[in-house]
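Tip: read the tokens left to right.
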């Protein structure tokens, strides 16, 4: 068995991959030889330039395809467009996600619905569209980026915590439906990673707890991580690459925490 990670000739589609963790995953998979489909909901020159940069850096093919992951139809059309270009999708990483922080009575219902759609429902739609392609090849990897908040909770994050718990359930169902077909489905549960998503919630958290930025980072965010260190996008990318290796053939229907010990507390 080849225990190295060799993804040459495989196509990896990663939702929400122009920033933060998704971009880190794109680099990690491209570094191991995979062709990459990048995604966000925007249609800017920078999105296409980013795809060119990844292609050049890693000597692979990389294409940006815009799709709004809050729309089920867009999710499915995105998979179909990717398959039209590359023939198939071998690796699907459901990563797109947003956050909003507010107490339940004040949590805007529209934002609640949007978080559930992007953070959870999009994984259902992309998986439904990609699975038949993977089945044709007899090989596939589905990796859902959940969160430590898929295993535990924090106040003021009702939609996010509900969505991430749902993603873990969906991961198990996907794994059971594909068992024995060469297709695995797993989730990764990161602790705090200092990306734009985390940066954006610091001001609201400062308000909720009446704290300075420094105190929020130290006493709210990293207080949950016994390592007292943020996880990095490279570490999450490396974990996805491992799940795509042959060594992970029998790892399915489970989650890997990359959280500095948070969920051991
Ligand atoms: P980020 O804000 O840096 O990146 C999110 C990406 O999703 C961006 O590329 C953005 O353009 C894209 N996106 C947002 N809305 C979209 C939509 N409607 N359609 C398509 N793309 C959309 O965030 P991040 O921190 O890198 O988070 C990535 C994933 O990791 C999320 O699912 C998040 O919940 C999860 N996560 C993050 C952390 C953390 O600490 N940063 C911890 C645990 C889990």
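Filled-in amino acids:
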């Amino acid at each position: 068995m080849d225990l190295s990670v060799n993804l040459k000739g495989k196509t990896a589609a990663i939702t929400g991959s122009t920033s933060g963790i998704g971009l880190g995953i794109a680099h990690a998979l491209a570094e191991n030889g995979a062709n990459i489909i990048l995604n966000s909901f925007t249609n800017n020159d920078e999105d296409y330039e980013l795809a060119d940069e990844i292609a050049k850096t890693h000597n692979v093919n990389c294409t940006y395809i815009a799709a709004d992951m809050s729309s089920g139809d867009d999710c499915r059309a995105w998979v179909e467009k990717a398959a039209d270009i590359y023939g198939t999708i071998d690796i699907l990483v459901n990563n797109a996600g947003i956050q909003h922080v507010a107490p339940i009575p004040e949590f805007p219902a529209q934002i609640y619905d949007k978080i559930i759609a992007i953070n959870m429902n999009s994984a259902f739609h992309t998986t439904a569209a990609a699975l038949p392609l993977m089945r044709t090849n007899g090989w596939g990897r589905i990796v859902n980026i959940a969160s430590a908040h898929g295993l535990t909770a924090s106040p003021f994050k009702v939609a996010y915590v509900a969505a991430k718990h749902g993603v873990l359930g969906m991961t198990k169902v996907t794994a059971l439906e594909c068992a024995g077909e060469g297709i695995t489905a797993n989730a990764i549960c990161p602790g705090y990673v200092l990306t734009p998503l985390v940066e954006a919630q610091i001001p609201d958290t400062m308000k909720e707890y009446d704290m300075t930025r420094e105190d929020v980072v130290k006493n709210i965010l990293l207080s949950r991580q016994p390592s007292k260190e943020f996880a990095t996008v490279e570490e999450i990318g490396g974990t996805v690459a491992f799940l795509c290796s042959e060594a992970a053939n029998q790892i399915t229907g489970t989650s890997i925490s990359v959280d500095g010990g948070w969920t051991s507390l």
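The longest strand covers residues 183-190. The chain has a mean pLDDT of 96.
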